[in-house]
Specification:
With 180 residues, this protein is mainly alpha-helical. It has one domain: Hypothetical Protein Ta1238, Chain: A (Up-down Bundle), CATH 1.20.1200. Helices cover 57% and strands 6% of the residues. It is built from 5 helices and 4 strands, in the order ββαααβααβ. A two-stranded antiparallel sheet has the order 1-2. Strand 1 and strand 2 form a beta hairpin. Helix 1 runs antiparallel to helix 4 and helix 3 packs parallel to helix 5. The chain is elongated, with a radius of gyration of 18 Å. 30% of the residues are buried. The mean pLDDT is 92.
């Protein structure tokens, strides 16, 4: 099977269900940004050795694929879509709460950076926020399951919490923003 089909050579692509849209369509932007987030997450996972963190991060990749399939659907084949549980964000909330017990109280804005894996966690956070914005734009045109927006919002919070937690684990001082 060839990887290239040439069907997108004129700037269109097919949604899940067969409808063709331009590659810059709001729906493509939404699931494409979720896909970009998943790639960045893969990079972050490659920098993590702690089993407890990996047990949280690894399933997120599959969840992002599940979300992406809903975002890519034109509504004609929704019976093939994975079920999105209303409690998807619960694991993230529990992890954020767990991190918060060990982290110092936040009194300043934190600058991205510290070391490579902390910086990658911040990249995941910002790409996740962009994905959330794209999904919200799509939701204005196509009613989406609310859990998608909730999950992306909580996931960006988780990446922020994780970046701070990695600072603690790696004994790296957080880079605090000090406005002039």
């Amino acid at each position: 099977m060839k990887i290239y089909t040439k069907t997108g050579d004129k700037g269109s692509t097919a949604l899940f269900g067969g409808t063709r849209v331009n590659k810059d369509h709001v729906q493509i932007e939404a699931y494409g940004t979720v896909d970009e987030l998943n790639s960045q997450l893969g990079l972050l996972i490659s920098q993590i050795s702690e089993k407890d963190i990996l047990e949280v991060l690894m399933p997120i990749q599959s969840i992002l694929f599940d979300l992406g399939s809903h975002l890519a659907s034109d509504g004609k084949a929704d019976h093939y879509l994975p079920i999105l549980s209303d409690d998807l964000a619960l694991t993230l909330e529990n992890e954020i709460d767990r991190h918060s017990l060990e982290l110092p109280q936040l009194k300043n804005f934190v600058m991205p950076g510290g070391n490579q894996r902390i910086a990658i966690s911040h990249i995941c956070r910002t790409v996740c926020r962009r994905a959330e914005r794209r999904v919200i734009s799509l939701n204005e045109h196509k009613k989406l399951p609310q859990i998608i927006i909730i999950y992306l919002n909580r996931l960006s919070d988780y990446f922020f919490s994780l970046s701070r937690y990695l600072c603690l684990l790696d004994k790296v001082d957080e880079v605090k923003w000090n406005p002039k």
